[in-house]
Fold each of these.
Amino acid sequence: MMKGAGSRRQWLATLAAAASAFGASPAAAQRHPRDVIKARPRMGINLAGVDYWDTELPFVDLMRTSGNWSFWRRDMPGVQVKDVAPSLDARGWLRALPEGLVAMLPLAAKSHLPDSKRAPWVVRYEGRGNIEFDGALRAVRSAPGRIECELVAQNPLPDPSLWLRITRIDADDPLRSIRVLKPGAESQPAVNVWDPGFIARWSGWGALRAMNIMSTNNSKQVRWSDRPLPDDRTFSPQGIALETLIDLANRCGVGPWLCMPHRADDDYLRRAASLVSERLDGRLPLWVEHSNEVWNPDFEQSAYASQQGMAQGLAPDANTARWRWHAKRSRDIFAIWSQPFAGSKRLKRVLGTQSGNSWGSQQLLRDPVIEVTDMLGVAAYLPLTPGANTTPSASAVARWSLEQVFDHLEKELEQLEQWQAEQRRWCARHGLLLAAYEGGQHVVGLGEAGGDPALERLFTQANRDERMGVMYRRLFDRWQDADGDLFCHFASVSAPSRWGNWGLLEHHDDDPAARPKYRVTLERMRRWRNG
């Protein structure tokens, strides 16, 4: 995703200069391409991240997406104490409560919470102490280890906020394993953490790309011990555990697309590959990729790739070194992952590139990584990203009509078609399939321009308009015409904001009939799946 990146024209100018300075890569026509597997278009989905403000609500337990602990004065409500760090156990539960303070954490915000008229919200916990709520829930009855709650009528949907507050902890038996369960979820086995509606929504799709839900961008994971675990208090912001993602894929019957952290050492990679080979349903495919958008300077993995490439002498400049180290590290990852899946066609190894950057793709494909690569991954976006100094500027676009927005997207579709054709030619030369790691509309203001209310309102209206559904049909048609294989929309469910309108749905309980993007994408998913 290009969110926050500079304009495409600036990128193209940079790329042209780089190509002139370093020359064209040796064409892999010198290599003999492997037999090309015929592309079969399929529709995948990029799952949204997990944070308390997100609107997909994928878990039955709100604690799984809760925020950080904070301390507040007991005698002065509303006064936060920032110079006291919480003492936590290995899974993130408070060990003790400092004298004179209460502890709070956010559970949900800006979301449609399920109603409690037919079944109550239930809080289950171990240990001893006192649990209270601020905002959308109110306790109506309690017993040791269990509290029943209902939605507070004076805090109407769709914009509730919900906080959990702890006012007392028994140091000898501290509160832990707290679960804030949606109505009707108490009877669901604890090993199944997923909301049934979430499972139903994404079952049958072509792939579940886990880039956001596993917090790939800017990851700090290096060793296997750094990774999140299934029994962590929350998966925010570090992302869900690999075991949890595998469980999701098995329940949905959909193969996962895994993005390996850019700092992960070889032991991490071996253990991850082994875990997936042992636990993933043997009938499911899987995709593996080195990080996400290593080319994109907005992400820490891009600078890291440049540093590593320069340190290893792969190129004389940071930009070329970034691409070449990305190829080299992808080669390492693919070799390690190929071991437990030796002889299997389930594993698809994806080499990520930038859609409009043929020069960058050539830097990748000159590396022996092509011998262990199955797919070249690009983005398939229809962008409109005005900023303060772009042409047209954000202030000008804010005065556009919806007709002007869709006229602009029509022109971007023509540009994207040319880029896809060029990338497809490189795929054909090397015997690779073309995949879209992300795709869809990319209508968002850059930087401070995103906060313009008129611009934000225009872009939200465009995303809700039936013409966006028409654009999506044409986007998917062009992808199929380009002989594209797997196409993963970005993203699943998220609310509109100044940072974009990425979700096919805006909330987990949206009416699909009111969301043209979702209707059209779902229809195309089914057509490609059954075709």
Amino acid sequence: MSQFTLNLLFIGASFALYIGIAIYCRAKSTAEFYAANRGVSPVMNGMATAADWMSAASFISMAGLIAFTGYDNSTYLMGWTGGYVLLALLLAPYLRKFGKFTVPEFIGDRFYSPTARIIGVICLLIVSITYVIGQMTGVGVTFSRYLEVSNSTGLWIGAALVFCYAVLGGMKGITYTQVAQYVVLIIAYTIPAIFISLQLTGNFLPQLGLFGTHEASGMAFLSKLDMLVTDLGFREYTAHHNSTLDMVLFTMALMIGTAGLPHVIIRFFTVPKVSDARKSAGWALVFIALLYTVAPAVGSMARFNLTATMWPGALTGDTYSQPAVSLDAIETSPDLAWMRTWQATGLLNWEDKNGDGLIQYYNDAATAGPVVDMAASQALAGNELTTVNNDIMVLANPEIANLPGWVIAIVAAGGLAAALSTAAGLLLAISGAVSHDLIKGTLMPNISEKGELNAARISMAASILVATILGLNPPGFAAQTVALAFGLAASSIFPVLMMGIFSKRVGKEGAIAGMIAGMLTTILYIFAYKGFFFVAGTNILPDTPDAWLFGISPASFGTIGAMINFAVAFGVSAISQRPPAHVQELVESIRVPRGAGDAVAH
């Protein structure tokens, strides 16, 4: 059976499963559409939350980031995991106790202001749309490779699938679909990792293989990887190279951005009791850890396999006896078929710059090391592996390692499950903000339940269309785009939720001013370096570390935006009237151990 046929079988079977679940669990009321009628068990909700959380950025892109940068990109692991702990401890139980459907609804009631609610909707839409672009990017990458279609065609196929099960099922259908997607993605992530760990280190568990011994050389695996990449002029894999300040700010932006993500927060509105919200968070951490503890091993082994493929002598320790891959081998060898198929997607490319019939892979910017002497003696013209998109490393790694076809096919299904599960959660958050907070809460308060449900479905369909169109021209690879969304959530939503739960002094004026100040400063900083609406050539300043203000990258600025939000909110509240007594009582009631839904606005 051909690889293409296997891909179709595995992907088609997973699609049929998701759509079948959505039809069976179709939402029939707004309570089912927004919160699954608050009837999801903690274990099921934990699994669904893990799938909602582990997006294309986690499954497809994170290990690729670690593969090409090493230690410095462990910030993604620390920030995302740590942020989930913040969410579980500081926000989720209290928001569940509040007993409403959406984040903007909490903001509007807590700060006794329709204006605050609308600004909350705007912040949610900006964050969620930016985030969903990253998911659609991952969908396009996966489809373009495994269904052998163009990136844009892959995006439209993915959009059609999300439309089928998200618009039909709402939160009820999405919850049980995400449980199935979690099972698919975790199997798809761990099986190839186990195979590759056994190949390279002899360890069954990738987590142990990362710190084990490279069998072919007898060296510690990470030491062997360090030696290999530094011989070729690249930075040491296990060392820290970037700005420590930016690393700290970026990790913090990911943490507090995680805690402010609306599509994750609304998952905690689906459980029966407040105590179940905490249990859900605990189960979700367990399910997330199954992937996140494997990711560093996947990244390092992917980097090793890619480098060893381009420098065949690396496996024997005689790196320069076989210094490169010939163009003839790339065109004819079954072992290098993965290069030909990924080149067709445009995400991998090479160029024989010196015309010697070989493709040399090394850091042509290196100023010291063996590669410099070799380049001088062989008259090399620079790195000839010109394009390696970060997003292909997890998907291509099984092919590079020559794993069985069924493993490659299940990785395809897993990558799509990760991207689509998060996309569905994001689109539900967007549709809830539009239909429940904007239409029902502001524009048409007397709309019927059926009318609101129809509005929710229409707004979700429109969101899918917008996300797909924007996904055709993303501002970066999946994890990079998602990182920007975390910065926006950190600067706008997280502070106002924290102040709404833990401060009786912050009133509507402070909350409104803080959200506007935090979001605007972060958007302006991002657009200055990334461009307006991600249109190429519209950035004011070059997106390079030398040009960043105090060395702070656009993805890290969310932490600064959050500080500005807090400072402005507290400052304005200090010179404004105290919140009404019933609102201060509401803040107290949210934090006392009473039943779910007891704390409601007067």
Amino acid sequence: MASGHHSETEFGDFHRRLFMLRAGLLLVVALLALRLWHLQIKEGPYYRDLSENNRTRQVLIEPARGLIYDRYGVLLANNVSSFTLYVTLEDVKDREKLVGKLSDLLGLDPEFIQKKLGGRGGKLVPRKIKDRMTLRDAVLVESHRLDLPGVMVQVESQRNYPGGVTASHLLGYVGEISAEQLEKPDFSDLHQGSIVGQYGVEKSFDRYVRGQAGYKNIEVDAHGHEKRQAVVENPQAGADLYLTIDVRLQKLAEELLGNEYGAIVALDPTSGDIFAMASRPAFDPNVLSRELTSKQWVEIVQDEGRPLNNRASQGQYPPGSTFKVPMAVAALETKTMAPSSTVACNGGYPFGNRVFRDWKAGGHGAVNLHSALVHSCDVYFYTVGQRMGIDVMAEFGRQFGLGQSTGIELPSERSGIMPSTAWKQKARKEQWFPGETISAAIGQGYVTVTPLQMANLMGTVANDGVNYRPRLVQAVMDRMTGNLQELPAVPRGKINAKPETFHIIKKALADVVKEGTATRAKSEMVTIGGKTGTAQVAALRTGPAESIPKKFRDHAWFIAFAPVESPKIAVAVLVEHMGHGGSAAAPLAKEIIEAYFKFPAPPPPTLPESSKEEQAQETPDSL
């Protein structure tokens, strides 16, 4: 009996163990199934991507920037093939070691490399370390590939300016996008390492010119080095720009300024087209478009000549006697003076407890508006200013575009100052004093202008009061479609003055050149009308000009138009610290004007064909 009971107990234990074993096996199978489901179904895409990325990488292909031409199709900015070094962090096991190797091979600062590797983006995004590498550097990197995991050399197109410093302030330069720029909506489709315009038309037309990046999928080995190329989406080149400038006039303007600081602007009064806009000293955009060290950048920024300052659109100077042109229009239109009204000039204008001097110590005798402009009589215009008052002067100054930007397509244009009682109250929290009106009447005191504004002002007078916005870009051409979008001339308004007024003023300006203060601008080839100006830099000084240190000497102005009968060109010349406009600035304007009429107009370029050829030439096969 006992043995039967014992065998039953053993049988029950066996069943229980079998059940436990089965349950355990089932649980293990269930857990394995669950894990497989998790890995293959839920996390499948992630691991597929991971395994794919162990094998493939997506590499961006930078686009070629659009080309820039002058008005006759002369190439001003193009692209050249160059080597660029990238690093993909995913393939770098020892970052310090890689930094050390690259630093030794290429002579780069380790801190600079670390900064580049620390840019935004995931580990799979290639970081641009150095562009414009020499062939020697590229070969050096390729020959050490096994020691440089994650390193890749790409052939890309880099910006190039064949003319060097020519028109540098207009063209500008390009550079790698900054962290601040990446935050802006305009650059939302770009990435660390993208090249964008940083100055000039390269900046203001960047969204047209920069093009669209493409990409290629490449298969890589364990070191992240390219084995095979898979899918490619080609980059789209940027649009081409056709500027209004004539590069021959531009070069001449720059040569005429030579080593002096200053600006020359020449434009078409009937459309606002800029023929030339020179600023000295200039810079080489090829140098600035490379990766500069902070030491190089500081040297450029701290250069006392401020080469990055476009004096034509950003330099603000007292206009001196060139301001007598809008003053003369205002005098006639407000009936402050009739054309025949005379003022007796004996060399000074007493006001309050001081005497405002005329530039001619003995005075000019009895002068009317015509002779006051021809011989630049200060006393006549002191009288006009005093009778008219600052607010009427400011109203006419604003009609001529003073105290406001011209709207040219260049970044950071300055607007100068056209003072008024309201301006002084707002800017200085002070009332306007009558004595300040007298200084302002001859373009001194608070009045400041840019050379571009003065060329535009002279163009407006030449054009009988019709004012155009200065235009630097005449057309944009889409390289992909060949579509040419012309940018029209934009009229800004008309001066509130009678045709007769402009006739009187233009006759006087012609006589300024014929027999007045600007006889050095007289030409055998074409009739020129103009006005000289001398802008004071410091308070009145005594003694000969040669004894005054150059930095305290006056600035020389001359503004002109030609031919007087039917104006085709208006010019403003400003040369810093060169004394009198008649001697220093007028001869330069004459040379620009004569060259404009001498140069034969080349045939207009055949746009679509030439740019397609260019595009074919500059897309490197190795991309």
Amino acid sequence: MSIYVVGHKNPDTDSVTAAITYSNLKNKMGCDTVPYRLGDLNLETKFVLDYFGVGEIEFLKDVKIQLKDLKYKKNIPLSSHLSVHAVYDHMTKNKIRTQPIVDENSKLIGIATMRDIAMSLINGDYYKINTSLDNIENDLKATIINEKNKSIIGEMLIIAYHYETIKRQNQITKDSIVIVGDRYDVIKLCIDKGVQLLIITGGAKLPNELLNLCNNSDINIIVTPFDSYTTAKHMNQVNFVSSIMIKNMIKFNANDYLDYFKEEIQNYSHSKYPLVDIDGNYLGMVSRRHVLNPGKKQVILVDHNEYRQSVEGLKQAEILEIIDHHKLGDMSTELPINFRNSPVGSTDTIIYQMYKENNIEVDKKMAGLMLSGIISDTLFLKSPTTTLVDKAAFEELKIIVDIDIDEFAMNMFKTGTSLVGQTIEQIFNKDFKEFRLYGKKVGIAQVFTLNIEEVFDRKEAFQEYINEKFEQRNHFLTLLLITDILKEGSYLLFKAKNQQLMSIALERKIKQGEYVENLVSRKKQVIPKIMEAINILK
């Protein structure tokens, strides 16, 4: 199973490009990884992926344990056209008590159990036959003398009476399946009557005259080495297994979650359940013991290390690595992992270092993605989070990409900051994160724009949405940073439980929509100031 490489929810350019470039690095080092996104791509990220010819990466809903992750038993399914005897023989040899039955397209249509087979021998209709000539030939170890029809459906008749008695009773019809020994007169009568199938027991060697008559007849004729009693006893076992299988069985889809499976099987006493794919094709059998040590999805996290920012169901998965540049979060693992966290401006800066450390060549496409992540997260190296390491990576990657970087960055920001056609909710939540600061729940959204009027034309609507978010999420503070990339500052819209909070944080009287110079970094500038203000207000 491939390893999932994921960035955070509400994915930005650094998060998405980091997932792609780190997955590429791991694959070149011999791993099997696939990058995923946890939300819709923003316009800036789409621009970057299109510019460098990278397809949109797949969305990942969750990493909860599914039944397909279990080490379930892949029992070989058997065809519904096999006989009960053939299925029983297979189950006995392989010590199987529950056997999946499929149609000609491998779709699960039923299951056969040892109990079903036993009950058919006790309560079944001994005389009704519905099978194929092949099944009868195989199960009775018979030799075909004459073959006219593969399908055998009718009533079994065992002839042990005298020839004249049989004639008087007039039991033989065209639908009859007749079992008889070396009674040549009866064999001739069956041929004359045109029975459906004549089974000659005891391995009888027919006289040449009778054999020629059999060969030239219009009926199925076989010879079995078994005596008449044994042949008759075996006949209801030659029926199609579909005649005794359970058709309305309890089955599960491979995509079903383990939690759902555990909940459902509490209502049943079965020990095993068939597993199918989305098209109903049989995959295997899941038993109760398989849930004791379930296989977990393996995940590598980039650009985050907090559960609330990560993929749903992460606690059911196995975290292999974390590559990040944020503060330490609340994640924990059962085993030691590779955890790389550096105080740089972009996760892509760290990943570029790892390419170099492992002597992996960086092609133009990967270089372009990493360069875009650095440009985005450092605001073209203008953010206070920018370090010398970011700048060095930027210069080296710029040489590999070999484009007009100023024009590219401006087009990237211009595309990414356009708010045309977006709702208030979409704009607010495209880069929204929640934090727990000194026990207070704080939500901070950030919007980058080159046209501040696109926001302030809807200022009242934004303020109303902030107020709703504040109440719904029970925040101590809900804040929207509207960052002007060219002016390198931010406008503030907020709702706080303490009206003095933002003024204390920024050390001046702050009103709604006020512009604050040199305030562009949520991580490096805003959060530390809010933490300090909360501490003062304690």
